[in-house]
Fold these 4 entries.
Entry 1:
Amino acid sequence: MAYAFATALGLLMLVRRRWPLAVLLLTAVLLIVYYVADLPVIGLAVPAAAALYSAALFDRTRWAVGTAAALVVVSTTARLAEGQDPAFLLGYELVSTVAIMGAAIALGTGSARGRRAPASAS
């Protein structure tokens, strides 16, 4: 079952430029369903990073930030409820996940601004 989720998440990346917001939301839904299905724990940053980047790139930064925050809350809550070590989860995993997700959003936003900036005469 976990492989089916991985495949679905990967296939979504093929259309992320055409439908960035839909891909972001479907990615979030798939990740939440994955946790509800009680499959082996996975991190959020890698499966969500490209969708967050694309949403921010196409001027959906608020959606990207909100979705990232919701995913972090759901994931952290689910993993703590499963009995994972809070020191590891909150002291290491949470920090790295938020950093990677934030970097993906910042890179998408920065790339979008770079696209809109007029070319300077050299």
Note: The mean pLDDT is 89.
Entry 2:
Amino acid sequence: MPFTHLDADGKPAMVDVGDKLATRRTATAEALIVVGPSIMSQLRAGDFSTKKGSVTQTAIIAGTMAVKQTWSVIPLCHPLPINGCTIEVRERGSDALHVECTVATEGKTGVEMEALHGASVAALTIYDMCKALSHDITVQDLRLVRKRGGKSDFDRD
């Protein structure tokens, strides 16, 4: 199967979606931010607020902004009307935060990249807000969890 973002000569090209039908499309992506037990304890003690503001609320806003700007950051993405975006940040164990970003559109192409971009920027925002406490933070397992609509559906096992 050829790469869809290459033309017949192998040069980068935006996929022409003009002949496709607009359908409802959704995608969910996730990322894990391992901050360590010390930072997690400090975050819990401050109700997840820092001098820069609420870590989780700021991450949600940053991720939502990223979803809406995906086309301007990833060169061959189409600008899409975003019908909905939800980002959840939850504690994962004693040392990590889990970000999940779900995006919906009614369009001719999917929103997988928008969901991945939203999850990654939300995770990076958490890193930025916590790095004053330690730089020993990792962003892990950025991945697509599921997608609906278009030619095929996808569910990660």
Note: The beta strands are 23-34, 49-50, 53-54, 84-92, 96-107, 138-148, 154-155.
Entry 3:
Amino acid sequence: MDTLFASASRKIPRSGKRRICFPITSRAYYGRSQLLIKTLHNHPSVELELMLSGSILLDKYSRHVAADIEAGGFTISASMFNVIEGGNHVAMAKTACLTALEFTNGLDALDPDVVVICGDRFEQLAIAMAAAYLNRTVAHIEGGDVSGSIDESVRHAITKLAHVHFVTNDDAERRVLAMGEDPKYVFNTGSLDVELASRIDTVVSNERVNAYGVGHDVDVTKPFLMVIQHPVTTEADNRKHLETSLRAVGDLGLPTIWFWPNPDAGTGEMAETIRHFREHHEAPTEKMRFITNVPADEFVALVKATACLIGNSSAGIKECSYLGTPVVDIGGRQHGRLAADNVVHVGYDANAIRAAVERQLRHGRYPASHIYYRPDASQQIADRLAAVELYTQKRFFDAVTTGLAREGRRG
């Protein structure tokens, strides 16, 4: 046990700049945050410390990502293996517990001024809890959104642990204020995902796409579909729901790029279902290529090029709103989230999925929406992180909710 707690006594020397810790727990988070990471890295008032953990350190989800990060000129301050595999709820809960333990040691040694938490992942909640107990200022990106799974509870829990908030849209800002957060620490900066999508002009080639994953070759110069369907941790029928989507998309007869589900509870049975269909050469997979992940710029290029994005990924809600990509959102994972006109919502019904995709294919691309877009989101966040007043003792801010109540009575 001595080695487990040894890091607590080895503080990293300070440079005089504001030390900002940025934990990265998945390739997706690194991809969508890379503009912010670069901006913080180059900021004259910031000393950036990157800490890696979660699926980003597992080859089956994020092969060579750590090397890619270092090749980009960034220094990795710590790497912590915290994932208990199994793809079920017990493994997910234990991974969160192990994350809190590992990051307590890591953050104590790193001694940051600010810990930046992104989104609604269960690992990020564990890190926010550890940072708050260590009396570090916690900054949260993407608070105030709603969704249809445990992710919403996690997101709001992080909001109540966080001291500084960077929200992506007007509705999210209203919700964060309604939760009693001080308005002077709530900033509507727009979405980092959308900012990245707005700046990328990569064109991905057939040769490049078909070098990833397994299955049927896809010609991305012709109409193709793209599917991203993750498990919903509060539902028990992830296998059945995935089978429904596989058959519905297969019946459409178009080449399809299908991205592997993320490592939430339920991913084990979903991965097993995909393997069964593919290895037994069942009809739905005849024109599908299954890919674990691609670099962020190539992902955006594929989202731009696809005739329709299908599934339950937030990319369909956020990036696709700006890019005008038609989307069929399946099930309740994104339930209630602010969406533009490019999104059609359907349940777990094969006929409804097919009909919705066919309708979107007939419609074609949509005008760009700016509901999640603000120019220079990463620069705004970096400048705020470098200069905002730091504090650790939170107070519930009553003025906002009191004002809302008074407005309601007047109405």
Note: The CA atoms of residues 114 and 385 lie 8 Å apart.
Entry 4:
Amino acid sequence: MDIQKLVDTLHPLERTVLPFIKAHASVDDLMKASKLKEVEVMRALQWLQNKGVVTLDVHESDIVRLDVNGQRYLKQGLPERRFLAALADKPLPLPRLISKADLSKEEANICIGLLRQKGAIILSKEKDLVVSLTPQGAKLRDAALPEEDFLKTEFPRQVDALPEPEKRLLQQMRSRKQLVVVEKIKSRSVRLTPLGQTLVERGVGDGKVIDALTPDMLRSGDWKQKRFRRYDLTAHVPRINGGRRHFVEEGISYIRRIWMDMGFTEMTGTLVQPAFWNLDVLFVPQDHPARDMQDTFFVEGKATIPADVAKRVKAAHEKGVGGGSGWGGEWTDDIAKQLVLRTHNTVLSARTIAALKDAPLPAKFFAVGRVFRNEALDWKHLFEFHQFEGIVVDPDANLRHLMFYLKEFYSKMGYSEVRLAPSFFPYTEPSFEVSVFHPVRKEWVELGGAGILRPEVVVPLLGKDVPVLAWGQGLERVITDYYKMNLPDMYSNDIEQLRTIKAWLR
């Protein structure tokens, strides 16, 4: 390495600290010698370490210092010292002893335990508990206690440097309330590398280098005679995390763009919906398990529902449409007027179809939004998640069209193979589970449902039977593979994850 170029890159703080390192290995000593603040010394050392001039070593050690009670006992005397002193003349009832020694009940109990263990006192029961001093106690009273000697030493102290008897004593003292406290501390030391030794021997020059031009230098032309510090383009700099959207929102934006590029119009709506639009118009029977508290979040209050559509929905449920028999039984407004957090975005599809009326066909719509299910949180289930939804209202639509739209979408999500497996949903016939072939795991993965809406759904809403292609998938299940994570991890709010996760680049 060119030593002169290295010298030219040194910051004024590095130039100040470097000459002292050979004689001062600790950060504290360097602060005293250089008369710089700790943050300035540490900054200089980190820069020098990045240049390979020094090596910073961090050592962890335990220190012991006096806690609140330890400081108080150093001035007032240990409780056991005051306990023994109070018994100097004669045995005393415990209440009088506590008062004379100025002890709390907790301190008195500790003294009794410690002194009985040492054979210093005996207890006898009269009207009150009476405490008497033994010959061994008299000796303790007149001698210095090991704990007293320990408290009088200079703190803080390195635990590793304590003699073995004091280490054992420390373990006993740590069991007492706020007497001593042991803390783990980090000490830092610095040493020169061979490159650093060469640099120190050569010297860092007079340090008369400048970091920036000033207006005065430009006006006077003095900059021509100045020596500028070289920029070190290899120096480590802190990582800067720019602002960005949540990665789930990035995925939503990408999916939204796919459907818009395919000519679809976005549907929107509120999170709270009447059960009428969320379930009834979709030909979900009013006694269906999906309406139970176990599957749906209900909201207090009652909704208003359109009487004309409700009349047609009632007929579809009770009598059927186009030759169907319906569900039978009696359909009631009260159940339909319940408010729920929407359980799927098909509620938006239903409202959109009802609003088409005499609009020209074909028409294509999509939605991406939050939905809610009353489910237990686990590695593959969330109680609040996003769902993307699509419908195509077209008199000429068929299953080949449905497959085209799904294959086109999933190919843009990185899946080239899509298949439909027969399934059941109350509001589509035929109904399918949508699966894609995972290119890495080499297996079929189920992602959602699709089908053609039943006449019992379309006729009450649109007034005529027109084929309506429909599909709905959980968004998180589609994008988890891209981010290589489980569902709950997507909303852990891990700041480091949010800063460093890869962007959506498909």
Note: The mean pLDDT is 88.
